[in-house]
Amino acid sequence: MNSSLIDIRQLEAFAAVMSAGSVTGAARLLGRSQPAVTRQIQDLEADLGYALLHRSGPRIQPTARGLRFHAEVERHLSSLTHIRERAEAIGREEPTTLTVSATPSLAAGILPQALAAITPDMIPRHLHVQALAAENVVQAVLSRSADLGISSLPLEHPGLEIHWIAEAPCVVAISADDPLAENEIVLLVDLAERRIITLANPYRLRHRIDEALERVGVAPERIIDVNASMTALSLVRAGLGVAIVEPATVCGVPLDGIVMRPVDQVIPFLFGAISAAALPLTPTVSAVIDAAKEEALKMPGSRLLEANGADAIADTVYGQGAVTEGAPE
User: Fold this and answer.
1) Does 163 have pLDDT greater than 50?
2) Which residues fall within 8 angstroms of residue 34, CB to CB, at 6 or more apart?
């Protein structure tokens, strides 16, 4: 790679091409001429020493290296935008830009209410909310591209400060006209003949759901797995099955025609608030952390765990006690 610094205009040109899918579209987005964008991409490739795009006439496709580099470019450009916003906020003596990363269910089910609960003048002019996979929430906080993360467990990393951890039992989401909706508590065995909609990630909530079904002898023949609870709820509303999901989305974003019922096996959903270790918290970040905790405790059957109770957390997340009998309180 050429030792000279990369021109920011080259990065903007590459990012615009990736977004627009063509040099012509990128030129319109940037307000530059098409030859100028083409030249900037070519200069960037020359500086890097490898191709970023496959060219076939007017059509272009990113190379494997181009896809990986694009992720870095997005982070870099986003960081520059945040620096500019924070500089402007400092000049106005306002709260600085806040970036919160959360899993989709918590971004929809807890974060909006938490933000609405804090004093309005604590919310900065620029607020960024990122809905990411749990692993990406952790990485965003560790890299300090996010000031705060709200994510499902596990959250084990020496570079993280865990502010609180909560546990809430999973629920069944069913159509309001389903006969099961008449029950105050749904028995998992009653789902044996149903199509079950649930989350896909085998390393987080999914394995506890599978353990619960196995415990009562249910081996569903028809399953739809999804990567977001909101998708599961939409599938339920379309009549495609019943969903076993965490309660945050169902409580925070209720959908017409869907009801939530507890189940006879407690399947714990564990989640918490994190920030980068040794990073001083702004008053706004502290307020959001506290407000999110209060919102978490509003979910049926939820309770706080000790944030530093590593043994108890490990037992609940990984151990045989992850699924227990009895309806949630």
Assistant:
1) yes
2) 23, 24, 27
